[in-house]
Amino acid sequence: MALAGTVVMVVGAVFLFVGSLGVFRLPDVYNRLQAGTKCTTLGAFLTVIGVGLANPAWFPKTLLIAMFILLTSPISSHALGRSGQRSGVPLWKGSVVDQTEDFSNGEQKR
Most exposed: 71, 72, 92, 105, by fewest CB within 10 Å? Predict the structure, then answer.
């Protein structure tokens, strides 16, 4: 079981590394937020589950922590993106579509 836990932790660490590269390389706040959230959510989830697999006595606690990560990370990312959009943080000039341009302060423009 320790080997499986180690493999899962290494895969999680790879996802965390890829997420950090995305945050470093992508052009604007919204793209960075997506890369950071998707990769780090999966990376942290796998790393914590790997710890639980490597130490079976800890597995119930690590499962609870992993579920907390899966629930809170996307919600916090959405809140950050929405606050950036509402405060006027611009999209990257190469962005093709802005699906939020019809909304201003939570109300649809008519």
Answer: 105
